[in-house]
Amino acid sequence: MTQDQIRAICIPSTVTIKDVIKHLNDTGRKMLFIVDGGERLMGIISDGDIRRGLLAGYGFNESVEKIMFCEYIAFDFKDSTAKEQARELMLERNIPLVPLIDQQGKVRDIIQWTDIIASADTKKVHEIQEHEIVIMAGGKGTRLDVFTKIFPKPLIPVGDKPAIEFIMSRFYKYGFHKFLFTLNYKKEYVKLFLKEKQFPSDYKIDWVEEEDYLGTAGSLSLLRHRLTDTFFVVNCDTILDVDYAEVLKWHKERGAALTAVGCHNEIDIPFGVLTLANGKLDKIHEKPSHDVIINTGMYVMEPRIFTYLTPGTFMDMNELINAVAAKEDVSVYPVYGRDWLDLGQWDAYKRSTKTLENNGYV
């Protein structure tokens, strides 16, 4: 690895958690190395460490030192057996990067997964999953009405595929093959596509139809007798570049009734914001930024959430989540800007399809 590549993976310990998220987004990496002022290795940070840190209550502007992992394994860059040791470690623990350091603890080289394993061997074989994927495909898609006046939103093109086929193929990559659709608006178009398309032979596809519009969550009540195990729910305009099996594992480990996948976003306010105290101006913040976690429209749910739904009654997803959170644990699985592609509005749709094209997905 070149020195420029090494420097791109090593970041100073003075940065904030938000800085790390931006660096992960910019580099497309899943892991970075944290170094001190003397460029000595102090720890590692992965996207998983950030998720755990945020849920533990650390803020976006806190130091990365508070959540970095210090019990890392590194090898002597002069050791002739370092590459083989790194290979065994990577295979055993599924680690993408291993540092090689000198006697002062400085990173002199980095071994990547692709450096030591032939590309044909790097494809992870995922366990076949029997959990169902519920794709909410009944909405009118009014924010895309230039398109949806003619076709339903689930069939909006993503490259050479309709959105729902693209979503299904991404789940299939991680071992999921059971898909259940909720349909309403222009449902005959969607049904015809699902009947006529030649999907892989192990796909299992079914659907339910709303008689009336039941909101962004209400149609789930139609599935109360169909789903008896943990299941995913995803909007038909949401694409996530994550390992869905890892999201499921996260949900299970926390024993949550519901897990929402949320994406970090920085909201810029293009005005000066006035802060008041006792009826007087306390401070003016010029064009401040706020860090928020946005709901992406993907969830993992347990069948007991059906007890919060009344058959045939309108309910939006925020109402369902709030009702569940009032009585049970609701988890959040944070992702980052690069991981979420939104197809629900024209500007976002154009950005997302361009991103997919640039990354070779379409």
From TrEMBL:
Keywords for this protein: CBS domain
PROSITE patterns in the cross-refs: CBS
Pfam family, one: NTP_transferase
Coiled-coil stretches: none
Family matches, as InterPro entries: CBS_dom (IPR000644), CBS_dom_sf (IPR046342), Mannose-1P_guanyltransferase (IPR050486), NTP_transferase_dom (IPR005835), Nucleotide-diphossugar_trans (IPR029044)
PANTHER family: SUGAR-1-PHOSPHATE GUANYL TRANSFERASE
Organism expressing this protein natively: Candidatus Uhrbacteria bacterium RIFCSPLOWO2_01_FULL_47_24
SUPFAM superfamilies: CBS-domain pair, Nucleotide-diphospho-sugar transferases
Every CBS domain range: 1-63
Protein name per UniProt: CBS domain-containing protein
Organism superkingdom: Bacteria
